Amino acid sequence: MERYTGCGERHSCIEIHLQNFHYLSGKYCFQGENAARRSQGPVYFKHGMTPQESFWLMRADASRHQLCDDGDWVLQRVEAGKDRCPPLIS
């Protein structure tokens, strides 16, 4: 069995395609770990053309996301004044 370096969930980007929701579709790249007690795990970010088109992909915390169970994957819009968008690296 061979291993490919740099291919783990914390080293590569995830390409998401959502039919009829093209503004949510795109490349989500690993940004760090979610330290929240209930929704730990990797956090990914998609740079949009504007902050309104930029989203976080992370595990849900049911106390914050009422329509989701703990651990479900959610896309969350960037919150102006609260979130710091990671720098875009080409």
Question: How would you explain this protein's 3D organization?
Answer:
By secondary structure, this protein is mainly β. It has one domain (13-77). The protein is built from no helices and five strands. It has strands spanning 13-16, 26-34, 41-46, 55-59, 73-77. It has a five-stranded antiparallel beta sheet with strand order 1-2-3-4-5, with no helix packed on it. The chain is globular, with a radius of gyration of 14 Å. The relative contact order is 0.17.
What is the structure about, briefly put?
The protein is mainly β.
Topology diagram in text:
Blueprint: E1 13-16, E2 26-34, E3 41-46, E4 55-59, E5 73-77
How far apart are the termini?
A: 32 Å
Number of strands: 5
Query: Based on helices, strands and strand pairing, what is the structural class?
Result: mainly beta
- Globular, elongated, flat, extended or rod-shaped: what is the shape? globular
Q: How many separate structural domains? A: 1
Measured by DSSP, the beta-strand proportion falls in: 25-35%
The radius of gyration computed from the alpha-carbon positions, rounded to a whole number of angstroms, is 14 Å
User: How can the largest sheet be summarized?
Assistant: 5 strands, antiparallel
Strand order of the largest sheet: 1-2-3-4-5
Low-pLDDT segments: none
- Helix content estimate: under 10%
H-E string: EEEEE
Mean pLDDT, all residues: 79
Separate helix tally: 0
Sum up the structure in keywords.
90 residues, mainly beta, five-stranded antiparallel sheet, 5 strands
